[in-house]
UniProtKB/TrEMBL annotation:
Protein name: TonB-dependent receptor
Membrane topology classification: Multi-pass membrane protein
Alphabetic keyword roster: Cell outer membrane, Membrane, Receptor, Signal, TonB box, Transmembrane, Transmembrane beta strand, Transport
UniProt family annotation: Belongs to the TonB-dependent receptor family.
Annotated organism of origin: Mucilaginibacter rigui
Pfam family, one: TonB_dep_Rec_b-barrel
Residue ranges of domain TonB-dependent receptor plug in the record: 73-159
Domain of life: Bacteria
Major location category of this protein: membrane
Coiled coil (UniProt feature): none
Subcellular localization(s) per the UniProt record: Cell outer membrane
Length: 726
């Protein structure tokens, strides 16, 4: 601990020395030894970006800047620090999965968020099983676009909004450029990020390779991660281009498993699982065609394939049952093997046209989407008694299903600029979904044959008024939906029934906000929101004519969330003295989210319990993150304080469970530090500390993979990286 604080002191002294050497001040930029300080960048997306319309919507832009977030560790809490209301579930400290939710949506692998990279989806099966197993290294990100509320019209299935990770672009002034950063840290953490890029004639390219490994903060939590990306763009004339991109991420992770409350209270840094492993591998090749017919009309067509798998081998038992040698067998118990294989194809075409309506210009965007996704699911295979990552079977899978979902959609959205200050943006989307499931469950004794077609329109509209040159009012209303996923219509055993009339979740989002900048000192975005989430899926208990109880998979009820999200930033130096060679920025992201069930029931130990008035699981009332960023031409450093209030882990609002799988997730407070120092034009060193005050906390309980039980958050940890960019 003393070593860490000595490092902090050294960083502070370095910051002061570099500030003293500031020189050659100009009006628009500050030059410090040939390093430039730029003005504060926009916090929200413009009205139109590419072929997308964002006018009247609640949006955020996140810049993946070293010194503001722990990029080498893929720490989502620090990356999304300036977006109000983002709840982050931390499965581990390695950043292997992205688990985010907002406004009452499920965080598990961002399952209710439309996750994209460079505009195309990375969710494993967008309609039927939209968990996001793919994850790029944060060091490769140029910016993150986050759209909430009215995002369903242009992007489709989700209540949690759309997140688009835009990978860095090459420096087109160079034929060949190279960047590399090597990072080491606590618990034998090592990360190696390496990238090349440039432009030769009509061809530009960018590619990276990232490798990350470590032992993890808890015992039995080792990991080995790899990520690859290559992009080649051919600008065949001044109007058009064709890009090919290929992405892959894969890792093998040892799963320490969940803890009971008693175990966690004794010590969070323990494990009673060492034979549990998880391995996803996702590949995404994509083609992107852009063509500008004129200055007013442009077309984008994106086609991509996603193929890969997720595999796990685990000793499945409650967290209070240790994985030890079975005396009756003389060996360990056999483990359970589960495997999914994904294969999908998606094409989206978007046309944007600017035209004059009356005396002012307006903008139209329209598009078509076709997606065909398949999942081959094999679960409950009886594995070996080995202790390593071994997917061999001694008995066949008890569940073997072929799952397919076809989705087609068309949308149109238009910005009508009524005046130079006021715009109205209505839109409509038409969705068609076809779901089929074939196979066997319950040790192959129960056949499953499920087919369902449905189609429906979604409507929405946004308003925006430019109050001044730098501030605007915005508001939107948009219908939203979430198709029921495969798990909601797949019986677990012979005593489980499925409602043949299962409904998709339907509802709407509404926002009303005010955002902008006052002078050079104060930036803000404050909005109120309301979300109605109807037809949430779940299980009830029903009794057949013979008196036997059955679990009934059906629509269990409705929920709603409402609240306030506020972002504020104050420039404490340059806001009052624009010629200063440094700046100190204080920001705060605050969200109050009141999520409640308004009707419905759910099964609990064979009894249907009313949900009315219960809090929505995984939804804290308060989320607040406060940061202080220090900037000079050479230094970026941020101290971040995070507070998340208590939340329940299940819809029944269970307060205690002996296995730890359900219960209250207590409030927690964390402090993180990021520091980056650039020197000799092409080099930099960074230093990150997570959980600086070594708080004992956890973000989620879980009753499935990778639990069941409490998943402790990491204690204090650090990493140090050295990088070069040529």
């Amino acid at each position: 601990m003393k070593h860490l604080y000595k490092t902090l002191l050294t960083a502070a002294i370095t910051a002061y020395v570099c500030q003293v050497h500031a020189q050659k001040i100009t009006k628009d930029t500050i030059r410090l030894d040939s390093v430039l300080i730029k003005e504060s960048r926009s916090k929200n997306l413009p009205d139109v970006s590419g072929n997308y319309i964002f006018a009247g919507k609640k949006t955020n832009i996140i810049y993946a800047d070293p010194g503001k977030a722990n990029l080498a560790g893929n720490n989502a809490r620090t990356l999304f620090a300036q977006v109000p209301g983002v709840n982050v579930w931390e499965m581990d400290g390695a950043g292997l999965q992205l688990n985010i939710g907002t406004r009452g949506t499920d965080m598990h692998r961002s399952i209710e968020t439309n996750v994209r990279q460079n505009g195309y989806n990375t969710n494993s099966d967008v309609v039927g099983y939209p968990e996001n197993h793919y994850n790029m290294p944060f060091q490769a990100i140029g910016e993150v676009q986050y759209v909430r509320g009215a995002s369903s019209l242009q992007f489709g299935s989700q209540f949690g909004g759309m997140v688009n990770f835009k990978i860095k672009q090459p420096d087109t002034t160079k034929t060949f450029g190279f960047e590399s950063e090597q990072t080491v840290g606590s618990n034998r953490f090592f990360n190696s990020y390496n990238a090349i890029g440039g432009k030769a004639g009509k061809v530009s390219y960018y590619a990276y390779f990232d490798a990350r490994s470590g032992d993890g903060w808890r015992p039995d939590a080792a990991f080995n991660y790899r990520a690859y990306y290559a992009s080649i763009k051919y600008q065949f004339n001044t109007k058009g281009s064709l890009s090919f991109q290929f992405s892959r991420s894969d890792y093998v992770q040892q799963i320490a498993g969940g803890l009971t409350d008693d175990m966690y209270n004794a010590t969070a840094r323990q494990s009673n699982r060492f034979r549990n492993f998880f391995k996803p591998a996702i590949n995404i090749p994509a083609l992107i065609f852009n063509y500008n017919f004129s200055n007013s009309t442009k077309l984008e067509v994106t086609s991509h394939v996603l193929f890969g798998e997720r595999s796990s081998v685990q000793f499945i038992a409650p967290s209070n049952v240790a994985d030890v040698v079975n005396p009756a067998l003389g060996t360990y118990n056999p483990r359970q093997v589960d495997r999914d294989h994904y294969k999908s194809f998606t094409t989206e075409a978007r046309l944007l046209h600017n035209y004059t309506f009356g005396s002012v210009s307006s903008t139209l965007t329209t598009g078509l989407r076709y997606a065909n996704g398949s999942t081959h699911r094999q679960q409950k295979g009886v594995g070996t008694t080995a202790t390593d990552f071994d997917l061999s079977l001694i008995k066949d899978y008890g569940i073997n299903l072929d799952l397919n979902a076809i989705n087609y959609a068309a949308f149109v959205e238009n910005i009508f600029r009524i005046t130079n200050k006021f715009s109205f943006t209505p839109g409509v989307r038409y969705e068609g979904i076809k779901t089929t499931i074939d196979g066997v469950v319950n040790n192959r004794s129960t056949n499953v044959n499920y087919k369902r077609d449905r189609s429906f329109p979604l409507f929405g509209a946004g308003l925006q008024y430019q109050v001044s040159n730098t501030t605007q009012l915005y508001g939107n209303f948009s219908q939203a939906y979430r198709p029921y996923i495969y798990a909601a219509v797949t019986p677990a055993d012979q005593l489980t029934l499925v409602d043949p009339n299962m409904k998709d979740s339907r509802g709407y989002n509404a926002d009303l906000g005010y955002r902008g900048k006052l002078g050079q000192a104060f930036t803000f975005d404050v909005n109120g929101f309301f979300v109605r989430y109807g037809n949430r899926a779940g299980t009830l208990t029903v009794q057949d004519a013979g008196g036997a109880n059955h679990l009934y998979l059906t629509t269990i009820g409705n929920a709603q969330t409402k609240g306030v999200e506020a972002y504020t930033e104050l420039s404490l130096i340059r806001g009052f003295n624009p010629q200063s060679g440094s700046d100190l920025r204080l920001f705060n992201t605050l969200a109050y989210t009141r999520g409640r069930y308004t009707s419905g029931s759910i099964n609990n130990a064979g009894v249907n319990i009313s949900l009315k008035g219960n809090k929505i699981e995984g939804t804290p009332d308060w989320t607040n993150r406060t940061g202080l960023t220090y900037l000079t031409g050479h230094i970026t450093s941020t101290v971040l304080f995070s507070y998340v209030s208590k939340q329940f882990s299940d819809a029944n609002n269970t307060t205690f469970n002996p296995t730890g799988a359900t219960g209250i997730v207590p409030a927690y407070k964390l402090v993180d530090l990021a520091f980056n120092y650039s020197f000799l034009k092409n080099y930099h060193v960074n230093f990150n500390i997570n959980n600086l005050t070594d708080q004992k906390y956890f973000t989620r309980r879980i009753n499935m993979y990778p639990g069941p039980g409490i998943l402790p958050g990491d204690g204090i940890s650090f990493n140090v990286g050295l990088g070069v960019k040529l």
